[in-house]
Amino acid sequence: MQHVGAEPPDPPALRHTADRSRRIALDQCAAAPNADASRMPPAPALLTRDGLDALLAALHADGFRVLGPTVQDGAIIYDDVVRVADLPVGWTDRQDGGSYRLERRDDTAVFGHTVGPYAWKRFLHPPLLRLWRAEPGADGVEIATDAHAAQPMAFLGVRACELQAIAIQDKVFLHGPFVDPHYKARRQGLFIVAVNCGQAGGTCFCASMQAGPKAEAGFDLALTELADGFLVEAGTARGAVLLDRLPHRPASEEEQQQAAAIVAATAAQMGRHIPDAAALPALLLGNLDHPRWDAVAQRCLSCGNCTQVCPTCFCTNVTDTTDLTGATDRTRRWDSCFAVDFSYIHGGAVRPAPRSRYRQWMTHKLASWVAQFGTSGCTGCGRCVTWCPVGIDITEEVAAIRAAPAPAAAAPAAPQSPP
Amino acid sequence: MPRAARKPKLAVWKFASCDGCQLSLLDCEDELLAVAGNIDIAYFPEATRTVLRGPYDVSLVEGSITTAHDAHRLHQVRRQSRRLITIGACATAGGIQALRNFHDVEEFTRQVYAHPDYISTLKTATPISAHVPVDFELRGCPVDKGQLLEVLTAFLHGRPAHVPTHGVCMECKQRGAVCVLVTGAAACLGPVTQAGCGALCPAYGRGCFGCFGPKETPNPVSLAPRLAARGLTPRDLQRLYRSFNAASEPFRQEGDRHGG
Ligand code: SF4
Ligand code: SF4
Ligand code: SF4
């Protein structure tokens, strides 16, 4: 890896630890509730590449459906993985606004790429779910559901921004007044193997959002890829137990320093920035009539791609359909505030103009989410920037509003923006 | 003695079209029996020689209006139909034959036919809704059979049909395809095209051809530089928009914007 042994730079974005507490605490999002510090190994371990195969085999042996990065259709896609050879060995990606290219690396790094289009949300909060089906039966109406996941899942290669995204969706689906049973069924028992990023992508800004690049909480195991192996930290007791079953040795002092240097170099390498993210709610909600919304609406396709790829966007639409056999299906599907019907109420849509739809999206992510859930709705993963067909860049939009804000004191007292 | 509930009568009409949309109904295979069990297929020459007299509860109309005779026939169809649903790009937007709208049809007939004076045709191909009131327009070239069943069922059950008007991108992301515009694999009209096909082409690495016509609030002007950056000339751009839905207003305007 190119940064091994580099002088650990001073990561500028991490230096001003603006409201570090917004990062969701470990106890809220730990992958397993049975954390037991006394059983954790005293120091990080070193796992060889064969050891990574052993990790995959052990997860399969424990009955997990193991999902990890794979190369598909010109992108890194999370899918079923069995062995290390299924992973994007020797691949990396180059990302910019509206642009994504896979490229060969000049080494055989396994995790030498950043995040692809699809977040883990796909598996925890599936895009399409039949909630139930009602059919005429012998004793009246029979209701069946196939919405619950059968097999526990293990995610391999979860980045820091994605841990944060999962923690945010935990808040939305598990820790509010309404628990989503489908999310809960998939989330329970989930085993998370995190990876500390060895490089930042062109659209990454997790450091600005206090969400990365180091995995700090919410994992069972966390890997840092070194030149000839992986530094492994256990985050939970079951992570430590699994690590014990794998061929490993204690990591040397030097290897630990290497790992720290890699993460520090990544933090200094972010492709994008949003300075002072804590100030965004007041900034954006105080500028709801800023001319920039008109400018971005000229460019925005209202295609909704940004919401679909965003790892924290959670909106769905539920429809009941009848068929000619007399059966009824209730189906839940990802929705987006960019669709006109999303805000349809009697008499018409509340947000008919793309301007108000873009503004809803961006103010929800960066501003009203804070009032609603106590965190930002953005982890700085950069997906919405990369996968916007016309390259609209949330960091650029923030900067434009910040450069010429409305006269002060325009900020409303209480943000009100239901999703 | 109480009369048995009468099954609704369905008629399927064809105007200028390729029959592909009607075939989507026959293509329903398993579901076709359920359809046939719930309705009387009263007029459907593609499927049966039986002809029941009108009026009809539901008429499916395929094709666009390209002759004075067809325009007259369409009014007769409308008069006999309680509900009239148009199916496919021809019926909802004029279809590929609406390319004539951009040129001189008499010139075409002179080029193609030995005796152009035998040809009696209108200068334009126009959607059904340009001639008679339409109860529902189902887009697509051809229509999606799932959507067709949904619309038929909705009409039979007296409920609204779930046919979203948002773009193809939503279906593309929901099926887990990789955006061909962003990876540079293809020029794609998905961001300005209405959903319905399930993002079929992008899922196979092809760009969307715009079969389902413009989506709600389309913004082709913003997409244009993106497509041009892939090496598409103004003429290519015009051709991209001048296909099955060339005469639908947002696509017509965008095609016109790119001379060639
Ligand atoms: S708003 Fe954009 S950068 Fe932030 S989490 Fe969502 S997709 Fe990632
Ligand atoms: S309302 Fe919020 S959570 Fe829902 S799609 Fe829009 S930005 Fe995402
Ligand atoms: S910001 Fe980009 S991805 Fe999001 S709706 Fe607009 S054009 Fe689509």
Report on the structure:
- The complex is a heterodimer of chains A (419) and B (260).
- With 419 residues, chain A is an alpha+beta fold.
- Chain A has two domains: 2-268, no CATH class; 277-403, no CATH class.
- Chain A is built from 14 helices and 16 strands.
- In chain A, a hairpin with a 5-residue loop joins strand 13 (316-322) and strand 14.
- Chain A is globular, with a radius of gyration of 22 Å.
- In chain A, 47% of the residues are buried.
- The model of chain A is unreliable at 1-41 and 413-419 (pLDDT under 50).
- Chain B is of the alpha/beta class and 260 residues long.
- Chain B is built from twelve helices and five strands.
- The A-B interface holds A 72-75, 77, 98-102, 117-118, 122, 127-128, 298-305, 308-309, 319, 321-325, 333-334, 336, 338-341, 352-354, 386-387, 389-391 and B 31, 34-35, 37-38, 149-150, 153, 156-157, 159, 162, 164-167, 169-170, 173-179, 181-185, 188, 190-192, 205, 216-219, 222-223, 226.
Jot down its keywords:
heterodimer, A: 419 residues, alpha+beta, 2 domains, eight-stranded mixed beta sheet, four-stranded antiparallel beta sheet, 14 helices, 16 strands, globular, disordered N terminus, disordered C terminus, B: 260 residues, alpha/beta, Rossmann fold, 5 strands, binds iron/sulfur cluster
Q: CA-to-CA gap between the ends of chain B?
A: 71 Å
What is the total tally of β strands of chain B?
5
Which structural class do the helices and strands of chain A define? Answer: alpha+beta
User: Which H/E pattern describes the elements of chain A?
Assistant: HHEHEEEEHEEEHHEEEHEHHHHEEEEHHH
Arithmetic mean of pLDDT of chain B: 94
CATH architecture level-2 label of the largest domain in chain B: 3-Layer(aba) Sandwich
**Computed structural class of chain B:** alpha/beta
What is the strand arrangement across the widest sheet of chain A? Answer: 3-2-8-9-10-11-1-12
Gross morphology of chain B is globular
Give the biggest sheet of chain B.
5 strands, parallel
Mean pLDDT of chain A: 89
Strand percent estimate of chain B? 5-15%
CATH topology of the largest domain in chain B: Rossmann fold
Count the DSSP helices of chain A.
14
Spatial ordering of strands, largest sheet of chain B: 2-1-3-4-5
Helix proportion range of chain B: 25-40%
Helix percentage range of chain A: 25-40%
Radius of gyration of chain A, whole Å: 22 Å
